[in-house]
Amino acid sequence: MDIPALPGITVRSVTTPRLTTRVLFSGPEDGVPVLFLHGNASSSTYWEEVMLALPPGFRGIAPDQRGYGGADRSAKIDARRGMGDFSDDAFALLDALGIAQAHLAGHSLGGAVCFRMLLDQPQRLLSVTLAATGSPYGFGGSKGLHGEPCYPDGAGSGGGIVNPTFTQLMAAGDRSSDNPQASPRVVMNSFYWKPPFKPAREEALLSGLLAEHVGPQAYPGDMTPSPNWPNVAPGQWGPANALSPLYAGDVSRLNHITPKPPVLWVRGADDQIVSDTSLFDMGTLGALGAVPGWPGAEVYPSQPMVSQTRAVLQAYQAHGGHYEEVVFADCGHSPFIEKPDEFNRAFHALLGR
After folding, report:
1. How far is residue 219's CA from residue 215's CA, in Å, rounded to a whole number?
2. What pLDDT digit, counting tens, does each position of 165-221 carry?
3. pTM of the complete model beyond 0.90
4. What distance in Å separates the CA atoms of residue 50 and residue 26, rounded to the nearest whole number?
5. How far, in whole angstroms, is CA 145 from its chain's centroid?
6. Are 64 and 5 contacting, i.e. CB atoms less than 8 angstroms apart?
């Protein structure tokens, strides 16, 4: 993968016992480390401006995660482990770089990885920043503030709900705007940020989106037929399946970790991807009539993604942790790209504490 990096960003290939991947670096080598984890259908490229804006004395580190960009394509995501492969990869990278503790920031899927890293090795995290994070209960197929599955098999989540035309165009490297529903450029500019906003580095960010690994063991992954609406359940491979509530595990364990790093949660008020009425959620689409056969709100409502995250963080705080929620008006799914000054102000304040 060859996406030109901004001046001040160093690009290296790093090999750990788990994964060889492309890693971006900024700041002094002996600086306080800040690990950045990108979201789905994106790459480390999305974090470059934030890395360059870090305060003096901080070291930015942003890998392409397993299944994305410059990561080894033979290394697959075992979705049955939920966010486990991503978490283990991130800690292995810190080990390979000789880093005992780091600040952590994650966007969307990367935020879901942050929750898993908190569960796995909280003592290694100095702070956690969640940017438009996915729910700790996964994406799709759950209801209520505590992530109750709509169906025991996770129907309505995983690789089977991904638009196949979108993944076909992604695999083909399509940079056009020809398909108004599925062209990667159109999806990015319609949902990653709030229109009419467009980032200055639109082409580089599109390249990062297109760099995701595509296939039945990558994105969108495999699927399982289900007797439950919408008749497809998660499979065993790839990031979309890893985000299923079927593999989320016991989220309440966050209440009992020690120590409890401080958490900053930043999101856009107009996010259409991670929302209590997400346009990428089967419950929302069923209620809108876009997916026939919807069994109704009692059985399959829109997943309250934002409310679930808030409930989890409130419980985290009630058990001795601390969190802050910051919401940007007129902002979509990428607050650090759409509102960089406001994002960095809150982010740097956390790093300073």
Report:
1. 5
2. 999 999 999 999 999 999 999 999 999 999 999 999 999 999 999 999 999 999 999
3. yes
4. 10
5. 20
6. no
Q: Distance between CA 263 and CA 323 in Å, rounded?
A: 5
Q: Which residues contact 5 (CB under 8 A, 6 or more apart)?
A: 11, 24, 45, 48
Q: Tokens 């740097």, residue?
A: 348
Structure tokens at 25: 């670096």
Enumerate residues 6+ apart whose C-beta is below 8 A from 152: none
Cα–Cα distance for residue pair 15/97, rounded to 1 Å: 10
Instruction: Name every residue whose Cβ is closer than 8 Å to that of residue 346 and which is 6 or more positions away in sequence.
Output: 264, 266, 324, 326
Candidates 252, 267, 305; CA nearest to 118 is 252
Quote the pLDDT of residue 142. Answer: 98
Residue 32, CA distances (Å) to 27, 54, 120, 180, 294 in order:
9, 10, 21, 44, 50
In the chain, the domains with their CATH numbers are: 10-147+250-352 (3.40.50.1820)
Half-sphere exposure of 307 (CA within 13 A, CB side): 12
Dist CA 209 CA 81 (whole Å):
24
Q: How many CB atoms lie within 10 A of CB 299?
A: 14
pLDDT at 162: 97
The SS3 of residue 268 is: strand
Type of residue numbered 78: D
Q: Which amino acid is at 46?
A: Y
**Phi (first) and psi of residue 131, to 5 degrees:** -105, 110
Give me the residues paired with residue 323 across strands: 263
What pLDDT does residue 350 have?
98
Check: CB of residue 61 under 8 Å from CB of residue 44.
no
Q: How far apart are CA 72 and CA 70, in angstroms?
A: 7
User: Under a CB-based contact definition with an 8 Å cutoff, are residues 113 and 84 in contact?
Assistant: no
As a whole number of angstroms, the distance between CA 8 and CA 213 comes to: 27
**Cα–Cα dist 181/194, whole Å:** 16
Report how far residue 230's alpha carbon sits from residue 25's, in angstroms, rounded to the nearest whole number.
43
Burial of 245-258, coded b for 16+ CB within 10 Å and e otherwise, reads bbbbbebeebeebe
Q: Which amino acid is at 270?
A: D
